[in-house]
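Late entry, written up from scratch paper. The run itself happened at the end of the previous shift, but nothing got recorded in the book at the time, so transcribing now.
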Amino acid sequence: MKNNIIKEYGLVHDNIIISYMVDFEKQILQINTKSYDEEVVIRFQGLLAHVFENVLLNNIILEIYQVTIECFLLEKVNRISEVLKYGFPTIEVSNIKELEDYLKEKEYRVFYLTASLWMCGYIIAKEIILM
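Output as recorded:
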């Protein structure tokens, strides 16, 4: 996996996740965090889909990093193949190859998030902004 990391967002390492919200109409996922001395908003714009697991109180961000689309699809091939049948992450494709082409053509990026207490997940969006 480490060879397929495009960029790491270390500025939010050790930030506490205060809240997150999804605005499907505006295609935004926003994570509100707090470090020891400031609040940082992590905004994913052009949101296509996201999956978070094990969401608990007091999660502290360990890493947010962008990976290649190929790496993401290879790692998640079984799960993505299954959920494609139900329109996730987009109803415009029907197999992994079409999804790969779609994500590249539409300029989507894949971001992984890991946190303490086992929270983890990924976000498929066009950009990330730290505010």
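The mean pLDDT is 93.
(Scratch paper discarded after transcription.)
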